[in-house]
Amino acid sequence: MSEHAEGPYRSGYTTGRGVTSGRRWSQAWRGGVYLLGSLGSGIVTALALPLLCHPRLARRWAGWHRDRAGRLLDTPIAPRPAPPATARRTWTDPTTRRNLLWLPVNAATGVALGLAALLCVGNLLPAAVATPLWWAFEPEDRPRLFIDIPVTDWADALILGPLQLLLLTALAYLFLPPMARAHARICLATLSPSTAEQLTDRVAVLTRTRADVLDAHGAELRRIERDLHDGTQARLVAIAMRLAVARQALSDNPRNEQFLEGLLRDAHEGTEEAMTELRDVIRTVYPPILADRGLAGALTAVTARCGVPTRLDIGDLDRVPAAVEAVVYFAVAEALTNVARHSHATTAGVRVSRTADRLSVAITDNGTGGADHRRGTGLAGIRRRALALDGTVEVDSPAGGPTTITLELPCG
Predict the structure, then answer these.
(1) Where are the domains of the chain?
(2) How far apart are CA 260 and CA 246, in angstroms?
(3) What is the pTM of this model?
(4) How far is Cα 124 from Cα 28, in angstroms, rounded to an integer?
(5) N or C end of the chain, less CB within 10 A?
(6) Which segments carry the region annotation Disordered (predicted)?
(7) Chain segment 284-320, per-residue pLDDT in tens
(8) How many angstroms separate the Cα of 404 from the Cα of each of 167, 365, 396?
Protein backbone atom coordinates (compact mmCIF):
# COMPACT_ATOMS: atom_id res chain seq x y z
CA MET A 1 0.00 0.00 0.00
CA SER A 2 2.38 2.65 1.19
CA GLU A 3 6.16 2.74 1.18
CA HIS A 4 7.76 1.99 4.50
CA ALA A 5 10.25 4.47 5.83
CA GLU A 6 13.81 3.31 6.21
CA GLY A 7 14.29 5.49 9.26
CA PRO A 8 12.13 7.04 11.95
CA TYR A 9 11.48 10.19 9.97
CA ARG A 10 11.99 9.48 6.31
CA SER A 11 10.41 12.34 4.39
CA GLY A 12 10.61 14.74 1.54
CA TYR A 13 13.27 16.50 3.57
CA THR A 14 15.87 13.78 2.95
CA THR A 15 19.01 15.44 1.68
CA GLY A 16 21.58 13.84 -0.59
CA ARG A 17 22.99 13.84 -4.06
CA GLY A 18 19.66 12.90 -5.59
CA VAL A 19 17.86 15.95 -4.28
CA THR A 20 17.33 18.49 -7.01
CA SER A 21 17.84 22.19 -6.56
CA GLY A 22 14.15 22.89 -7.08
CA ARG A 23 13.19 20.42 -4.41
CA ARG A 24 15.70 21.94 -2.02
CA TRP A 25 14.25 25.41 -2.57
CA SER A 26 10.81 23.96 -1.90
CA GLN A 27 12.14 22.55 1.36
CA ALA A 28 13.59 25.92 2.30
CA TRP A 29 10.26 27.60 1.59
CA ARG A 30 8.30 25.05 3.59
CA GLY A 31 10.82 25.25 6.41
CA GLY A 32 10.59 29.04 6.54
CA VAL A 33 6.80 29.00 6.59
CA TYR A 34 6.82 26.32 9.28
CA LEU A 35 9.27 28.21 11.50
CA LEU A 36 7.39 31.49 11.17
CA GLY A 37 4.23 29.62 12.14
CA SER A 38 6.10 28.12 15.08
CA LEU A 39 7.14 31.62 16.13
CA GLY A 40 3.51 32.71 16.17
CA SER A 41 2.35 29.59 18.01
CA GLY A 42 5.20 29.95 20.52
CA ILE A 43 4.20 33.52 21.29
CA VAL A 44 0.55 32.52 21.64
CA THR A 45 1.55 29.65 23.93
CA ALA A 46 3.59 31.94 26.16
CA LEU A 47 0.84 34.56 26.38
CA ALA A 48 -2.06 32.14 26.83
CA LEU A 49 -0.24 29.57 28.97
CA PRO A 50 -2.74 29.62 31.90
CA LEU A 51 -5.66 29.14 29.51
CA LEU A 52 -3.96 26.39 27.51
CA CYS A 53 -3.28 24.40 30.69
CA HIS A 54 -6.87 23.17 30.55
CA PRO A 55 -6.60 19.50 29.48
CA ARG A 56 -9.05 19.78 26.59
CA LEU A 57 -7.43 22.90 25.16
CA ALA A 58 -3.96 21.45 25.67
CA ARG A 59 -5.05 18.30 23.84
CA ARG A 60 -6.32 20.26 20.84
CA TRP A 61 -3.29 22.56 20.79
CA ALA A 62 -0.88 19.63 20.99
CA GLY A 63 -2.85 17.69 18.38
CA TRP A 64 -2.60 20.61 15.95
CA HIS A 65 1.16 20.73 16.42
CA ARG A 66 1.48 16.95 15.98
CA ASP A 67 -0.40 17.04 12.69
CA ARG A 68 1.64 20.02 11.54
CA ALA A 69 4.94 18.34 12.39
CA GLY A 70 3.83 15.12 10.74
CA ARG A 71 2.98 16.93 7.51
CA LEU A 72 6.36 18.66 7.47
CA LEU A 73 8.21 15.37 7.96
CA ASP A 74 5.81 13.38 5.77
CA THR A 75 5.48 11.03 8.74
CA PRO A 76 2.19 9.16 9.35
CA ILE A 77 0.76 10.13 12.72
CA ALA A 78 -0.94 7.41 14.73
CA PRO A 79 -4.46 8.28 15.86
CA ARG A 80 -4.60 9.67 19.36
CA PRO A 81 -6.34 7.58 22.01
CA ALA A 82 -9.75 8.71 23.16
CA PRO A 83 -9.68 11.13 26.11
CA PRO A 84 -10.46 9.66 29.53
CA ALA A 85 -14.10 9.59 30.53
CA THR A 86 -13.70 11.32 33.90
CA ALA A 87 -11.97 14.55 34.91
CA ARG A 88 -9.92 12.73 37.55
CA ARG A 89 -8.49 10.31 35.01
CA THR A 90 -7.87 13.17 32.59
CA TRP A 91 -5.38 14.84 34.92
CA THR A 92 -3.55 11.56 35.61
CA ASP A 93 -3.54 10.43 31.98
CA PRO A 94 0.01 10.25 30.48
CA THR A 95 -1.23 11.92 27.29
CA THR A 96 -2.40 14.92 29.29
CA ARG A 97 0.99 15.20 30.95
CA ARG A 98 2.73 15.15 27.57
CA ASN A 99 0.36 17.79 26.22
CA LEU A 100 1.05 20.05 29.19
CA LEU A 101 4.82 19.46 28.87
CA TRP A 102 4.65 20.54 25.25
CA LEU A 103 3.39 24.02 26.20
CA PRO A 104 6.67 25.35 27.70
CA VAL A 105 8.73 23.35 25.20
CA ASN A 106 6.84 24.92 22.32
CA ALA A 107 7.09 28.40 23.82
CA ALA A 108 10.87 28.06 24.09
CA THR A 109 11.73 26.24 20.85
CA GLY A 110 9.11 27.92 18.71
CA VAL A 111 10.16 31.44 19.68
CA ALA A 112 13.91 30.73 19.48
CA LEU A 113 13.91 28.97 16.11
CA GLY A 114 11.16 31.21 14.75
CA LEU A 115 13.11 34.37 15.60
CA ALA A 116 16.16 32.97 13.84
CA ALA A 117 14.06 32.33 10.73
CA LEU A 118 12.45 35.78 11.00
CA LEU A 119 15.86 37.43 11.27
CA CYS A 120 17.01 35.62 8.16
CA VAL A 121 13.88 36.13 6.06
CA GLY A 122 13.07 39.58 7.39
CA ASN A 123 16.44 41.05 6.41
CA LEU A 124 16.01 39.99 2.80
CA LEU A 125 13.44 42.73 2.27
CA PRO A 126 15.71 45.69 3.29
CA ALA A 127 18.40 44.37 0.97
CA ALA A 128 15.95 44.05 -1.92
CA VAL A 129 14.65 47.59 -1.31
CA ALA A 130 17.99 49.25 -0.58
CA THR A 131 19.67 48.15 -3.80
CA PRO A 132 17.47 50.03 -6.31
CA LEU A 133 15.64 52.57 -4.10
CA TRP A 134 18.09 53.80 -1.46
CA TRP A 135 18.04 57.30 -2.97
CA ALA A 136 14.27 57.67 -2.47
CA PHE A 137 14.61 57.85 1.32
CA GLU A 138 15.45 60.90 3.39
CA PRO A 139 19.07 60.94 4.65
CA GLU A 140 18.03 60.15 8.19
CA ASP A 141 15.75 57.31 7.00
CA ARG A 142 18.18 55.63 4.59
CA PRO A 143 18.01 51.81 4.73
CA ARG A 144 20.69 49.97 6.63
CA LEU A 145 22.36 46.74 5.55
CA PHE A 146 24.16 44.18 7.68
CA ILE A 147 22.11 45.51 10.61
CA ASP A 148 23.86 48.87 11.02
CA ILE A 149 25.54 49.96 7.75
CA PRO A 150 23.62 52.87 6.14
CA VAL A 151 23.35 52.97 2.35
CA THR A 152 24.46 56.45 1.24
CA ASP A 153 25.57 55.96 -2.37
CA TRP A 154 25.28 53.63 -5.31
CA ALA A 155 28.50 51.86 -4.44
CA ASP A 156 27.09 50.73 -1.08
CA ALA A 157 23.79 49.75 -2.66
CA LEU A 158 25.29 47.75 -5.51
CA ILE A 159 27.90 45.99 -3.37
CA LEU A 160 26.32 45.52 0.06
CA GLY A 161 22.74 44.94 -1.13
CA PRO A 162 23.44 41.94 -3.39
CA LEU A 163 25.96 40.63 -0.87
CA GLN A 164 23.37 40.66 1.91
CA LEU A 165 20.81 39.05 -0.38
CA LEU A 166 23.28 36.34 -1.34
CA LEU A 167 24.35 35.57 2.22
CA LEU A 168 20.81 35.51 3.67
CA THR A 169 19.53 33.42 0.77
CA ALA A 170 22.36 30.94 1.33
CA LEU A 171 21.57 30.82 5.05
CA ALA A 172 17.88 30.20 4.32
CA TYR A 173 18.76 27.54 1.75
CA LEU A 174 21.11 25.70 4.10
CA PHE A 175 19.64 26.12 7.57
CA LEU A 176 15.88 26.64 7.40
CA PRO A 177 15.06 23.02 6.44
CA PRO A 178 17.13 21.37 9.22
CA MET A 179 15.86 23.93 11.77
CA ALA A 180 12.27 23.17 10.80
CA ARG A 181 12.92 19.43 10.97
CA ALA A 182 14.52 19.84 14.39
CA HIS A 183 11.46 21.63 15.76
CA ALA A 184 9.09 19.07 14.22
CA ARG A 185 11.06 16.18 15.71
CA ILE A 186 11.13 17.83 19.12
CA CYS A 187 7.36 18.15 18.85
CA LEU A 188 6.81 14.51 17.95
CA ALA A 189 9.33 13.29 20.53
CA THR A 190 7.63 15.30 23.29
CA LEU A 191 4.10 14.26 22.35
CA SER A 192 4.81 10.61 21.50
CA PRO A 193 4.12 7.96 24.14
CA SER A 194 7.02 6.41 25.97
CA THR A 195 8.20 2.86 25.36
CA ALA A 196 6.41 1.68 28.51
CA GLU A 197 3.16 3.32 27.39
CA GLN A 198 3.48 1.80 23.93
CA LEU A 199 4.05 -1.61 25.51
CA THR A 200 1.00 -1.15 27.75
CA ASP A 201 -1.14 -0.19 24.77
CA ARG A 202 0.23 -3.11 22.81
CA VAL A 203 -0.62 -5.55 25.59
CA ALA A 204 -4.13 -4.10 25.79
CA VAL A 205 -4.61 -4.53 22.04
CA LEU A 206 -3.28 -8.09 22.10
CA THR A 207 -5.51 -8.94 25.06
CA ARG A 208 -8.54 -7.61 23.23
CA THR A 209 -7.70 -9.33 19.96
CA ARG A 210 -6.98 -12.59 21.78
CA ALA A 211 -10.43 -12.46 23.34
CA ASP A 212 -11.94 -11.75 19.92
CA VAL A 213 -10.02 -14.65 18.39
CA LEU A 214 -11.19 -17.04 21.10
CA ASP A 215 -14.79 -15.92 20.62
CA ALA A 216 -14.48 -16.26 16.85
CA HIS A 217 -12.84 -19.67 17.22
CA GLY A 218 -15.62 -20.89 19.49
CA ALA A 219 -18.27 -19.58 17.12
CA GLU A 220 -16.52 -21.23 14.17
CA LEU A 221 -16.37 -24.59 15.95
CA ARG A 222 -20.06 -24.35 16.84
CA ARG A 223 -20.90 -23.50 13.23
CA ILE A 224 -18.88 -26.42 11.88
CA GLU A 225 -20.46 -28.78 14.43
CA ARG A 226 -23.94 -27.53 13.53
CA ASP A 227 -23.31 -27.86 9.79
CA LEU A 228 -21.97 -31.39 10.19
CA HIS A 229 -24.73 -32.43 12.61
CA ASP A 230 -27.70 -30.88 10.84
CA GLY A 231 -26.52 -31.40 7.28
CA THR A 232 -23.91 -34.01 6.52
CA GLN A 233 -24.64 -36.33 9.46
CA ALA A 234 -28.38 -36.27 8.76
CA ARG A 235 -27.79 -37.15 5.12
CA LEU A 236 -25.42 -39.99 6.03
CA VAL A 237 -28.02 -41.40 8.46
CA ALA A 238 -30.66 -41.24 5.72
CA ILE A 239 -28.31 -43.03 3.31
CA ALA A 240 -27.62 -45.75 5.86
CA MET A 241 -31.37 -46.24 6.44
CA ARG A 242 -32.07 -46.51 2.71
CA LEU A 243 -29.28 -49.02 2.24
CA ALA A 244 -30.58 -51.05 5.19
CA VAL A 245 -34.10 -51.05 3.71
CA ALA A 246 -32.69 -52.02 0.31
CA ARG A 247 -30.74 -54.87 1.87
CA GLN A 248 -33.81 -56.10 3.71
CA ALA A 249 -35.97 -55.79 0.57
CA LEU A 250 -33.36 -57.68 -1.46
CA SER A 251 -33.41 -60.56 1.01
CA ASP A 252 -37.23 -60.62 1.17
CA ASN A 253 -37.97 -60.18 -2.53
CA PRO A 254 -34.96 -60.28 -4.88
CA ARG A 255 -37.17 -59.56 -7.90
CA ASN A 256 -38.49 -56.19 -6.67
CA GLU A 257 -36.05 -54.30 -8.92
CA GLN A 258 -38.04 -51.07 -9.23
CA PHE A 259 -38.23 -50.58 -5.48
CA LEU A 260 -34.55 -51.40 -5.04
CA GLU A 261 -33.59 -49.05 -7.87
CA GLY A 262 -35.43 -46.17 -6.20
CA LEU A 263 -33.72 -46.78 -2.86
CA LEU A 264 -30.28 -47.01 -4.42
CA ARG A 265 -30.89 -43.88 -6.50
CA ASP A 266 -31.87 -41.95 -3.38
CA ALA A 267 -28.82 -43.28 -1.55
CA HIS A 268 -26.54 -42.25 -4.43
CA GLU A 269 -28.00 -38.74 -4.61
CA GLY A 270 -27.76 -38.38 -0.86
CA THR A 271 -24.12 -39.43 -0.97
CA GLU A 272 -23.31 -36.74 -3.55
CA GLU A 273 -25.16 -34.10 -1.53
CA ALA A 274 -23.30 -35.13 1.63
CA MET A 275 -19.98 -34.88 -0.21
CA THR A 276 -20.90 -31.40 -1.46
CA GLU A 277 -21.77 -30.26 2.04
CA LEU A 278 -18.53 -31.71 3.39
CA ARG A 279 -16.56 -29.82 0.76
CA ASP A 280 -18.36 -26.62 1.73
CA VAL A 281 -17.51 -27.12 5.39
CA ILE A 282 -13.87 -27.92 4.61
CA ARG A 283 -13.65 -24.86 2.38
CA THR A 284 -14.59 -22.60 5.30
CA VAL A 285 -11.79 -24.08 7.42
CA TYR A 286 -9.00 -23.85 4.84
CA PRO A 287 -9.88 -23.43 1.18
CA PRO A 288 -8.46 -26.37 -0.80
CA ILE A 289 -7.89 -24.03 -3.72
CA LEU A 290 -5.09 -22.38 -1.72
CA ALA A 291 -3.29 -25.69 -1.43
CA ASP A 292 -3.89 -26.50 -5.10
CA ARG A 293 -3.19 -23.16 -6.80
CA GLY A 294 -1.56 -20.96 -4.19
CA LEU A 295 -2.68 -17.48 -3.21
CA ALA A 296 -2.38 -15.99 -6.69
CA GLY A 297 -4.44 -18.76 -8.28
CA ALA A 298 -7.05 -18.66 -5.52
CA LEU A 299 -7.49 -14.89 -5.85
CA THR A 300 -7.72 -15.22 -9.62
CA ALA A 301 -10.60 -17.66 -9.16
CA VAL A 302 -12.33 -15.40 -6.63
CA THR A 303 -12.12 -12.32 -8.82
CA ALA A 304 -13.29 -14.29 -11.86
CA ARG A 305 -16.41 -15.42 -9.97
CA CYS A 306 -17.26 -11.91 -8.78
CA GLY A 307 -20.42 -10.45 -10.28
CA VAL A 308 -18.62 -7.13 -10.85
CA PRO A 309 -15.73 -6.85 -13.34
CA THR A 310 -12.64 -6.99 -11.13
CA ARG A 311 -9.02 -6.24 -11.94
CA LEU A 312 -6.43 -8.25 -10.04
CA ASP A 313 -2.88 -6.98 -9.55
CA ILE A 314 -0.48 -9.26 -7.65
CA GLY A 315 3.15 -8.36 -7.09
CA ASP A 316 6.05 -10.61 -6.15
CA LEU A 317 4.87 -12.14 -2.86
CA ASP A 318 7.61 -14.72 -2.30
CA ARG A 319 6.60 -17.26 0.37
CA VAL A 320 3.53 -16.34 2.44
CA PRO A 321 2.49 -18.27 5.57
CA ALA A 322 -0.62 -20.40 5.20
CA ALA A 323 -2.49 -18.49 7.91
CA VAL A 324 -1.88 -15.20 6.11
CA GLU A 325 -2.97 -16.72 2.79
CA ALA A 326 -6.23 -17.87 4.38
CA VAL A 327 -6.94 -14.44 5.86
CA VAL A 328 -6.24 -12.72 2.53
CA TYR A 329 -8.41 -15.21 0.64
CA PHE A 330 -11.38 -14.87 3.00
CA ALA A 331 -11.01 -11.08 3.16
CA VAL A 332 -10.98 -10.67 -0.61
CA ALA A 333 -13.85 -13.13 -1.05
CA GLU A 334 -15.97 -11.39 1.61
CA ALA A 335 -15.17 -7.91 0.32
CA LEU A 336 -16.03 -8.79 -3.28
CA THR A 337 -19.24 -10.45 -2.12
CA ASN A 338 -20.19 -7.17 -0.43
CA VAL A 339 -19.28 -5.27 -3.59
CA ALA A 340 -21.56 -7.45 -5.70
CA ARG A 341 -24.45 -7.35 -3.22
CA HIS A 342 -24.45 -3.87 -1.74
CA SER A 343 -22.21 -1.36 -3.52
CA HIS A 344 -23.94 -0.95 -6.93
CA ALA A 345 -20.41 -0.77 -8.35
CA THR A 346 -19.52 -1.27 -12.00
CA THR A 347 -15.83 -2.01 -11.48
CA ALA A 348 -13.65 -3.29 -8.66
CA GLY A 349 -9.99 -3.95 -8.09
CA VAL A 350 -7.75 -6.08 -5.89
CA ARG A 351 -4.08 -5.23 -5.44
CA VAL A 352 -1.74 -7.45 -3.40
CA SER A 353 1.86 -6.45 -2.77
CA ARG A 354 4.64 -7.19 -0.34
CA THR A 355 7.23 -4.87 1.15
CA ALA A 356 9.79 -6.54 3.41
CA ASP A 357 7.76 -8.53 5.97
CA ARG A 358 4.42 -6.77 5.38
CA LEU A 359 1.76 -8.00 2.97
CA SER A 360 -0.63 -5.28 1.77
CA VAL A 361 -4.04 -5.92 0.23
CA ALA A 362 -6.21 -3.15 -1.20
CA ILE A 363 -9.78 -3.87 -2.38
CA THR A 364 -11.47 -0.98 -4.20
CA ASP A 365 -14.76 -0.35 -5.97
CA ASN A 366 -16.51 2.61 -7.55
CA GLY A 367 -19.81 1.99 -5.79
CA THR A 368 -21.98 4.12 -3.54
CA GLY A 369 -19.78 3.79 -0.44
CA GLY A 370 -21.04 3.88 3.12
CA ALA A 371 -19.45 0.57 4.18
CA ASP A 372 -19.34 0.23 7.96
CA HIS A 373 -18.19 -2.83 9.94
CA ARG A 374 -20.65 -1.95 12.72
CA ARG A 375 -23.60 -2.75 10.45
CA GLY A 376 -22.73 -6.41 9.98
CA THR A 377 -21.65 -6.20 6.33
CA GLY A 378 -18.86 -8.77 6.77
CA LEU A 379 -16.20 -6.17 7.47
CA ALA A 380 -16.23 -7.10 11.15
CA GLY A 381 -15.15 -10.63 10.24
CA ILE A 382 -12.37 -9.30 8.01
CA ARG A 383 -11.16 -7.04 10.82
CA ARG A 384 -11.29 -9.86 13.36
CA ARG A 385 -9.28 -12.23 11.16
CA ALA A 386 -6.64 -9.55 10.46
CA LEU A 387 -6.29 -8.56 14.11
CA ALA A 388 -5.80 -12.19 15.03
CA LEU A 389 -2.55 -12.11 13.03
CA ASP A 390 -1.47 -8.74 14.40
CA GLY A 391 -2.58 -7.03 11.20
CA THR A 392 -4.48 -3.84 10.51
CA VAL A 393 -7.60 -3.00 8.52
CA GLU A 394 -8.56 0.44 7.25
CA VAL A 395 -11.87 1.21 5.56
CA ASP A 396 -12.29 4.40 3.53
CA SER A 397 -15.87 4.47 2.31
CA PRO A 398 -17.46 7.93 2.26
CA ALA A 399 -21.08 8.29 1.29
CA GLY A 400 -21.22 8.30 -2.49
CA GLY A 401 -18.05 6.24 -2.79
CA PRO A 402 -15.59 5.06 -3.77
CA THR A 403 -14.65 2.41 -1.20
CA THR A 404 -11.16 1.23 -0.36
CA ILE A 405 -10.46 -1.55 2.15
CA THR A 406 -6.79 -1.90 3.03
CA LEU A 407 -5.26 -4.80 4.96
CA GLU A 408 -1.69 -5.02 6.18
CA LEU A 409 -0.52 -8.36 7.54
CA PRO A 410 2.87 -9.51 8.86
CA CYS A 411 4.31 -12.32 6.79
CA GLY A 412 7.88 -12.59 7.96
Answers:
(1) 21-193, 201-285, 290-410
(2) 6
(3) 0.47
(4) 14
(5) C
(6) 1-20
(7) 555 667 777 888 888 898 888 888 899 999 888 888 8
(8) 49, 7, 5
